[in-house]
Amino acid sequence: MKKVTIYTDGACSGNPGPGGWGAILMYNKMRKELSGGEKSTTNNRMELTSVIMALKALKEPCEVSLYTDSQYVSNSINKGWLESWQKKDWKKKGGEIKNLDLWIKLVPLLEAHKVTFNWVKGHSDNVYNNRCDELAVAERDKHKG
């Protein structure tokens, strides 16, 4: 199984507001940047979209080390929230699951690949996280006004 490293990030101006996402996929010496955006979205939706789009770009099952500065995304996976939501028929204590449509898109991708989620501090000294932020912000800015 190929070992791939992925960095992802999302950005939003207002919440909701125009947003963008960025991802970097790295395999051996190859590096691919992806990005996109929406006119009206939220930061968490863009964080999730970046993960989904990055995993969708993989052409075969891979062992993925995924780095995100989103505690929303990393905690949902690493703390078992996503698994719990699924077992409870997509319900949680205290109400509805936000961004359910995206979580449902993510599940088969997580099943296709062996993904390890790693949280990194945003806007810090991580060159790849910072580059993802630049991609996300550029896309967000395309959708302003």
List keywords for this structure.
about 30% strand; 5-stranded mixed sheet; about 140 residues; Nucleotidyltransferase, domain 5; alpha/beta; 5 helices
What portion of residues is helical? Answer: 40-55%
Low-confidence stretches: none
* CATH topology call: Nucleotidyltransferase, domain 5
The CATH class is Alpha Beta
Explain what this protein looks like in three dimensions.
The chain has one domain: Ribonuclease H-like superfamily/Ribonuclease H (Nucleotidyltransferase, domain 5), CATH 3.30.420. The chain is 40% helix and 32% strand. Strand 1 and strand 2 form a beta hairpin. It has 145 residues and is α/β, with parallel strands linked by helices.
Give a short summary of the structure.
With 145 residues, the protein is of the alpha/beta class. The chain contains five helices and five strands.
Structural topology:
Blueprint: E1 2-12, E2 17-27, E3 30-41, H1 43-56, E4 62-68, H2 71-78, H3 81-87, H4 100-112, E5 114-119, H5 127-142
Parallel strand pairs: 1-4, 4-5
Antiparallel strand pairs: 1-2, 2-3
Helix pairs in contact: 1-4
